[in-house]
Amino acid sequence: MGALSLVLVLGACGKSASAAKDKSYSPKELTVQFVPSSNASTIEAKAKPLEGLLKKQLGIPVKVSVSTDYNTIVEAMGSKKVDVGFLPPDAYVLAHKQNGAKVILQAERYAYKEPNDQITKQVVDNYKSTILVRKDSGIKSIDDLKGKKIAVQDTTSSAGWIYPAVELYRQGINVNKDGIKTVQVKGHDQGVLAVYNGDVDAAFVFQGARLLVQKDAKDVMEKVVPLYTTKGIPNDTITVRGDMNKAWQEKIAKAFKAIAKTKKGHEIISSVYSHEGYVDSKDSNFDAIRAYDKTAEKLNK
Q1: Kind and range of the H or E run holding 228
Q2: pLDDT tens-digit profile of 180-237?
Q3: CATH assignment of 126-233, given 3.40.640.10, 3.30.450.40, 3.40.190.10, 3.40.30.10?
Q4: One of this protein's Pfam families, by short name (predicted)?
Q5: How far apart are CA 141 and CA 30, in angstroms?
Q6: 45: which of 176, 181, 233, 265 lies 20 to 30 Å off by Cα?
Q7: Architecture of the structural domain at 26-110+235-285
Q8: pLDDT tens, 240-292?
């Protein structure tokens, strides 16, 4: 009787484990969403062709869209409306904390060289944030930012808020105090233009953001210059929703790496986010982001 009970228990456990495994998510149609690092409609137009490339790799329909901001895509992944998110590092950390989202890939980019955002041939897995000012502004040091108006991105943006704000705080300047007025803009291109047009005194943007507007503002490199550059920030992620089947995680990762190596695929990811390719990633790569986040909490104290 004891043996029979044990068999029944083991059988039940087996069924339970099997049922749990069966409940892991396998997409029938893949929803992929980007965040607007620059003009949202422009990004959507550039990213749309990924639908066909991914469908060919994965064998299921794919829908690509652009979210309104970082928080929206995190919420959409949590409510299981979005399967795959192109999340910047801080948004990934938030998505992981809130709904167990899993990072599968990290982007590689060419490094930039100041002062004119020259693109080097060095491929790196991190990028930097820079504080831009007008050359004729009279702002020569970070202390001069006190009492000024600064264009920033969403508060979950690593380059557009967290890193520059935290590094200024560590040097005695609190952007939420010290007479500083922050103005949130959507897209790093808009941050550059706000400085260029004299609407703000400075902007927090990713290094290389001036290149986004150079076509329309040809003298942007002469008029808008870097005041301060942060330490390296882990590159953007490709993240999947928390219940994604392990086999599908691997399949999606393989698909994006393969697409990035094709001429058409590379053109798309390069034009959207300046990505050159993708490498496997893991959650611990973003512990530095968590440390900055912890310090960022002190800005309002």
Answers
A1: strand 224-229
A2: 999 999 999 999 999 999 999 999 999 999 999 999 999 999 999 999 999 999 999 9
A3: 3.40.190.10
A4: Phosphonate-bd
A5: 47
A6: 233
A7: 3-Layer(aba) Sandwich (3.40)
A8: 999 999 999 999 999 999 999 999 999 999 999 889 999 999 999 999 999 99
